[in-house]
Amino acid sequence: MALDASTRPYKLNTEFSLADIQAPPLLRGVFGFKQLFGSDKLSRSFTTEGQSLNDFINQLNGTISTALSDNAITGVNLGALARRAKNLLTGNFEK
User: Fold this and answer.
1) Considering the entire predicted model, what is its pTM?
2) Which of 10, 40, 48 is nearest to 23 (CA)?
């Protein structure tokens, strides 16, 4: 985090990144997901400027990104799901 108070308006820049976050505890705690497993990467970058809290809020600009990797969903039979999709696409509605 960097705050430049040498000039007005004051400028604030902040960057933050986390890698190899284990997804299950995070997703269970925040969203209630129980079947998704994997690791997560979270990054954020914000800039703002102003002389008051209101200025800082109004001038806030930045990005937040996340990426899941090495994922698995428990309790889902992906093979059966793929076969059903194939049957539907080929017009075989009985299987």
Assistant:
1) 0.51
2) 40
